[in-house]
Predict the 3D structure of the following.
Amino acid sequence: MPQSAGKKWAFRIIAMSLGLLVLLAVEGLLRLGNWGTPDPAEDPFAGFANVRPLFALSEDGSHYEIAENRRDWFYNVQFDAEKGPDTYRIFCIGGSTVAGRPYTVETAFSTFLQVMVRQLDPDRNWEVINCGGISYASYRLVPIVEEVLANYEPDLLIVYTGHNEFLEDRTYEHLKGLPTAVTKPYELASHLRLFNVIRQSYLGLTGKGTASIMDARAILPEEVDALLEHQGGMEHYYRDDAWHQRVMEHFELNLDRMCVLAENVGVPLLFMNPSCNLRDTPPFKSEHRADLTDRERKEVEELLGAASKAFAESEIERAIALCDQAIGVDPLYALSHYRRAKLLDVLRRWDEAYDAYVKAKDLDVCPLRMLEPMHTILKEVVDRHGMPWVDVHGETLKNFETGIPGKDGFLDHVHPTIGGHQFFASLLVEKLAEMGVIPPLDDTWQQRVMPGLQAHGRTITRAYLADGEMRLENLRHWAEGKSEAEPPVASKRKRPGQESD
C-alpha cells in the first residue's frame, strides 16, 4: 500500500475512534446526570384505565399487606413497614405460577425459597414476598415492579413471566403502518441515553410520534379481562400472525422496561425462564390453514383417523407416516403434530418427539403456554441488560428421563406440582449463592434445608390440598374455554379481512 494511502486510512481510523470516544463521553455524562432516562410509563402498545397500588399500609402502620381491592387476584401477604438493618427483602413477581396455583402461597416456590435461605443463612432476616397475580401478563407486572422499587426497599426482584401474554385482547391497530424507526425505540429504550435525549427533544419540538401513538393505544381495564372468560371462550381465538408478532414485541418491551426501572435504582432483577407441560397437554385449539379446501380438510381428518386406527393395531410406524401425510396437506394444524409427537414418544424417539410437541404448542391458536420465540426474547433482554437469570425451562428438561416435561412435574399445562415448586426454589438458591447473596453451597446444602422444609410441610393440611384440587378442576375447565363467566364486552380484535366498526 502506498504511504499516502496508508496515511489516509490511519487518519480515518483515528477520526472514527475520536468520534466514538466523544459519543462514549457524552453517554457517560448523561448517565451521571441521569438525563435521557427512558420513561417506563411510556408503553405505546397499551395503557390502563387505572393503576391501583398493590400494597396498602395496615391501620396500625406496622406492616404492608395486599390492598383489599386487589385480593381477587393476589393472595394476601404481609411484610414489615420498617425494614430492619439485617433484613434482605426479595419480591417474587409474576402470574399464577408465582402465586402457587392451583394451591396458594404456602406451597409456592417463593415460600420454599424463604424456608431454604433461612436454614442456610440464619443470621439474616430473610423476607421473600409473593406478588403473584392470577392471569397477570408482563404488561400488568411493570406497574408492580415500579411500585415495589419506589416504595418497599427491595434488595432483589425475581420475575417469572411469559405464559399469560395472550390471555387478554389488545388491539394494535394504531401501530399499523408505523415504521420500525418509530416503534423500535420503545423496545430498545434502555440502550443509549443520548438517543433518548435527541428523540425526546425532537418529539417535544415537533409534537410527532409519541403523542399520536400514546393517544391511540388500547386502554385496558384495571384488572384482567381474560378472553376465555368471555361468552364463547375459545371462539375468540383464531390464527392471527400479525397479532401474535405484536404481542411478542410488547412482551420484549415490558421486559426492557422492568430492567430499566431496576437499573435506575441499582436493584438486581433476576429473571426465571418459564417451563410448561409438553407431553400431557394437547393443543387447546387447532385451526386449519386459511386456504385449505373442503377436500383437503376431509383428507386431513381421514389421515388422522387412519393413524389412530393404525396405532390401535400397534402399527406405530405406519401411524407416524399417516400423520406425516396429514402434516404435508396442512402443516399448520397443531393437533397433527401433537398426535405425531405421542407416537414418536411411544417409540422412545424422544428428540424427535420433543420437537413435535414444541411445534404443536407453538401452532396452538390459543397459546396458554409461552411460545419458543419468547424464550429467545427473554434471553436477549437478559443479555442486553446484563441481568441474572435462572433457566427453569432448560433445567426442567433435565429432570425428565425423556427430556420432555409432563404430568410428573406439572398439574396442568403450566402449573408445577408442589415438588416442582421446591425444585424451582432450589434452582434459585443455587443462583443466589452464585450471585453472592447467600454463602457458598457445599454438597450437603440440600440436607441442611430439610428440617425447615419438613417443619413447613407439617403445616400443610388435607383441607388445603383438597381446596387446591378443586381449584385445579376449575382451572382445567377455564383453560378449555368452559368458564361460565360472561363479561358484557366481547372481543374487539378483528379477524383478518373483517371490516372495522
Remarks:
- The radius of gyration is 25 Å.
- Residues 3-32 form the longest helix (30 residues).
- The chain has 18 helices and ten strands.
